[in-house]
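Data deposition worksheet. Section B asks for the primary sequence of the deposited chain exactly as it was used as input, without tags or linkers unless they were present during the calculation. Section C holds the resulting structure in token form. Section D is free text for depositor observations; keep each observation to a single sentence. Incomplete worksheets are returned to the depositor.
Section A, Depositor: J.P.
Section B:
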Amino acid sequence: MIKLRYLRKNHFWFLTGFEVFALGILFLETDDFIGRPPDFITNIDAPQIAIALVLVGLYSMIASCGELKGSVRDIVVFLLLFIWSFYFIMFLIHDLAAPVMIPHFSTVFTFFIVIRILFEAFWSDAR
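Section C:
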């Protein structure tokens, strides 16, 4: 059963997990979200990866509904930080490979998500 006190305390991690879940759903629903070169970047929105994103998002949301401390918290923080850092780097490489090297909204957005996760990981009182 969901205990509201845990969800209230871990609402940041729940919402960040929901963002990963939504990213996975977006990649499942959108055909070829990332469409131009370099070639290795065009595979980061493949259905297999999108399913993994959905599962990580669900895990983070479910874990946030309980007591989030110790190794469970470390796993949630690692997974969310890894995913958003990975996508920030991939979006940045994607933008730098474009004829005009201007960061797109997705790159800037993921950068701020990474910063937000780092702040919350180090300064939250969820420990």
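Section D:
The helical segments are 4-9, 11-29, 47-64, 71-96, 105-123.
Residues 4-123 form one domain.
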